[in-house]
Amino acid sequence: MNDMISPFAPDGFPKLPPLRGFTMATAEAGVKYRGRTDLWVLRGEPGTEVAGVYTQNRCPGAPVDWSRAALTVASNGPRLVVVNSGTANVFSGQAGRDAVVATAQGAAAAFGGNAEAIQIASTGVIGVALEAEKLVDQFGGMATRMTPDGWEAAARAIMTTDTYPKGATAQAKIDGVPVTINGIAKGSGMIAPDMATMLAYVATDATLDQPVLQHLLNDLVGPTFNSVTVDSDTSTSDTLLFLASGAADHAPVSQADDPRLADFCRALRAVMFDLSQQIVRDGEGISKLVTIRVSGAVSDGSAYRVAKSVADSPLVKTAIAGEDANWGRIVMAVGKAGEPAERDSLSIHIGPHCLASQGQPDADYVEEMGATYMKEAEIEIAIDLGLGGGAATVYTCDLTHRYIDINADYRS
Amino acid sequence: MNDMISPFAPDGFPKLPPLRGFTMATAEAGVKYRGRTDLWVLRGEPGTEVAGVYTQNRCPGAPVDWSRAALTVASNGPRLVVVNSGTANVFSGQAGRDAVVATAQGAAAAFGGNAEAIQIASTGVIGVALEAEKLVDQFGGMATRMTPDGWEAAARAIMTTDTYPKGATAQAKIDGVPVTINGIAKGSGMIAPDMATMLAYVATDATLDQPVLQHLLNDLVGPTFNSVTVDSDTSTSDTLLFLASGAADHAPVSQADDPRLADFCRALRAVMFDLSQQIVRDGEGISKLVTIRVSGAVSDGSAYRVAKSVADSPLVKTAIAGEDANWGRIVMAVGKAGEPAERDSLSIHIGPHCLASQGQPDADYVEEMGATYMKEAEIEIAIDLGLGGGAATVYTCDLTHRYIDINADYRS
After folding, report:
1. Is A197 tagged catalytic?
2. Residues B3-46: pLDDT tens digits?
3. Helix (H) or strand (E) holding B347
4. Residues A170, A247 within the same domain
5. What domain range is A234 assigned to?
6. Which of A18, A25, A52, B110 fits A148 for a cystine, CB–CB 3.0-4.6 Å?
């Protein structure tokens, strides 16, 4: 996969505590990789609720089709999630669809519950059907090893071009009862989520009705996973799941606007934001972490589209890689977004420096200010359109030689 | 600016014959570059008509604002075009606007006609105001050197990161009277024209009313300049002008659908297509020339947007640079376009090979076929969506280390 760790990797994997109501196991199924795990099964005790968002790509994989349908199926036993790396099982025809069915049936037989309710995800190369028997052969042994303590192992098993495993955890209280939220994610390239990101799993022991889960997920995916972009390419396998075991000892929550959820929402957003940041910090070939803040737009949606246009511009990304405070390219990328923008009301800051405002370079700005700032590892670009109250923030990385090395040489 | 000539450069600059009704000169104004020309003045005899299309970027340069207005101003003398390279005079505030006015006034004084009718264009770095006096100082000398024979010199004077000058010519007959069409263009990066390309000038000695000129230009810009993309970034300075001196000896044409224009339209399209191809063939860092043909879409517009999505995908472009027939990434890029597409009715060819159809890899395809084909310098990808009769073709290049070298190191 990738022998160079991102310079933005965290110091280590955070300590994710066991979560009441969930057990899991990983295995070396040998789908494609050798000498590493590539299969993860998560088992939520009976009563576990699940919500999900999936890729908006029009050519989704067979596992996405299956899992979208499974979201609506009640489970008569545990709630299972099965994830493999090594193949995405996308555009793999009838063989791919058959593999999903065989995987679900094998998992139901080994872990209980009905096959139709199982969430299945595959990540890796597109166009190669999953060999389901490699997974099914592992399920019996995995069923004997299920543990509540395997989050880091799980995060490692679902990696592809990732250079580090991604996890986050937070505590919150509902009705004074402490609950925990754990999450893991994978993703490094083909990252421009249009609903969710490559693969992310967030679980809690809180007791929440399914519509509440889905509502929270829909609300929070915008400022978290949908606000990161590595290369503007939207994966065919994006999946974000949110599971709740209901093991915590508080009265069930059945309304998304229940005031008892305030602290929980804060914690959930923190976990989702942390995971989405870890994905962009592992962006393929990253040498600079870039935050694009747009304000003064006619609406939040307009601000978001302008921020995405800047974040995805190859000329902006290569200038940042070259430590060039090339705000002319930022002007270009604002203007090409097709959103309302007025050259003469636009202002641009890079870090603490005002580079341009009112349609011209700032009188106090000298190139040395930008040149010094651009040597920083983390770059912040603030764009005010001067038109209204709309704002958005998008997180991205630069475009480097290493991105080309990874993607011209590796069949992912 | 660029010491490595594109491998897709033509053998030499074509022979552009003198064009009745037009004279021109170039000069070393020293705007930014040293030891080369950077200024071109084209003079159309009184009676010359002009049509233009300009960038759709919402942050256009002062010269674009000026020239868009100048298009509606009748000239009381010759029709002038003034172009400099070295600065784009974009986002340069009042100083930039003043420079355009000073340039126009200086040109009118030296070459005749009214300043307000002059077409002015600047290309180069964004955010630096043009020093108009550098241009104006040259106009007197240039007025003494005007010649009908300077097309190649003109093409050289307007280059920035281009690795070769771009020109094309064609002959046609109107009413049996021979007429000539000459064109020059520049552009290599920041190429995703949304109306025109960086800078292109097409001129003829035919006798055409201005509305006819504009109609022909609007009709033909779609399948030519608007169908090439290097890096998905739309310039703030894109300008395409079409001038007609009326020196040819046929009865004037005042309707765009006049059947006498059939042969002329063919020739005009050929010139515009040739120039747009020369731009993509000089795409920054190009190692492969790529044609994306989409058919079976619900409309031509939908086919165009799918083709652009594939052509602009960093993962598709890096795979091509790596000579990897990675059709999975093509499926991804089709799906992310947001246009109607059905995974199971999609088929993909690379050159003569069918890679995938009906939602799965083609049974007869083996990886060696694609691996051999991808070593070619010119790659053709054909995508049939299987939904309707819409079709479009987009031309692009791959994404290489050299693109990053050029754009991380050069302030353009």
Report:
1. yes
2. 688 888 889 999 999 999 999 999 999 999 999 999 999 999 99
3. strand B347-350
4. yes
5. 22-281
6. A18
